[in-house]
Fold this protein.
Amino acid sequence: MADRARALSKRYAPLVPALATVLLLCAPADRGDVTAPGRITPADAASAVLLLCCLIRLVRQRARPLTLTAALVLGSLAVGFAVSTMASDDPAASLPGFVRAVQIFVLVPAALVLTLRTPRDFRVVAGSVVLLALVQGAIGVHQFMTGTGASYMGKDIRAVGTFGSLDVMGMATVVAYGLVAALALGLAPAADAPRHLRPAALCSAALLVVPLAVSFSRGAWIATAVSVLVVLLLAGPRLAVRTLAVLGALTVVLVGGAGVGSQMMSERIASITEVSAAPDRSVTDRYALWAAAASIWSDAPVTGVGLKGFAAHRDGHASLGLSSGSDTGGAGAGFQREPLLSPHNMYLLVLSEQGLVGITALLGSWAALLVCALRRLPAARRGGRHADCGLIAIGLLVWQAVDFLYADIGGPTTVLTAVLFGLVSWWALATPEPARGADTR
């Protein structure tokens, strides 16, 4: 028994920093400014430990380096960030943005590609994301039911988990990640998976619909709907039809029959397009910020104004209709007015700050990840052993690509986005499976 425990400890020890990076996001967020420059969260510290452990392991064990494809896909992003930083109006001010971008989109994903050895490792990390989502979702539902969440339409009912009113997108992002991962695990479990895995995963996905609904996050709703549809179609048309029918019935019961904020959600959905007739202040501001980002890009179309440069150039390009900030409150915090320092669209943020060089590197890298991930899926489905990993990777990548139309990086969950890209990169870019007889489950 002791020998088995030591073997398991040695086997999964390399995953501990990755698991800590995910699960430390269960801890309550600091009540200070979650977007403050240079602010390091416990999860960020764990990601630094992950990088350090990966480096030490590479040096001591002479472990395999990244493949050429992986180096090109991930390295192109670093090159784009570096070019934008050097061409910035203020390179010193852009340097922190460069470090953060390389951490999130290059270093942490590369470390996970080198750390995860088998599909079983992948599932362990993905399972930790589902666990995090269930914890945050439970807290969010409690906030909605007890009126202790963030302020929304004059009531403290918006589910935000432990992230607080200054990061209202945090819980929605975490819950959506967990929902997509749980659904994929349940739709295509490995042939040797425990019998209880499928029902547990599908029940988890169903439960996570509730906190996602009461997060009142329009972007997360849209991204989740698209990614769930993609995962279902890749899992099989017949299965997709059956699962959509069940999810539809569940949504009617929870949102309609049980009255879980149905009227507020209907108004929230309708507000996406109501800009002229009955404008929603947040929608109007978002469109104004998008226009400002496009205008900033027109001044420096090739390399942009530099990372962290949007806030400094916003006022010179924004329309008079842009408000000075957004109102936040509730979830244990008093009323505050948060400045609008980003366009809330990752693609426009990159375009304005990094120009055509940056956006080409970003879209090219993500397109390569998607193509490589899709190419591996048919063989995995035929083998019947780890198609769930492929569905998780593709579903999460699609979710992030869609959500970035309405959001950008920032806040404590940014490091979780890095873990997401690490999972996707492992599935799409990892070296071939070990020889027969090795642990490839």
Notes: The beta strands are 150-152, 155-158, 326-330, 333-338. The CA atoms of residues 393 and 423 lie 6 Å apart.
